[in-house]
Amino acid sequence: MLKILFLIFLLFLFVTIYSFKKRIDDILDVLFPPRNKRNGDKNSPDVLIKCLNCGVYLPKSEAVKKIKLNGEILYFCSDQCKKEYNSKK
Length: 89
Ligand SMILES: [Zn+2]
Description:
2 domains, rod-shaped, binds zinc ion
């Protein structure tokens, strides 16, 4: 009987430690956002690019891309800017 109680206690301890660890991980993620993990691409660092429509600078990974027929890539800060740039032409 004592053995069973001990096993239940161990299980309880394990669950408590596990959820506590998860909570710490969540807090650490908020304090130190894992940038590389989010972008998932270490080979291309976050270069700042300029929106062709409004001139705002933003990280390349967050930019809206438009690929031209000749292979040239145009960058915009938002879909709105992309549309405005297209309608200007
Ligand atoms: Zn823009």
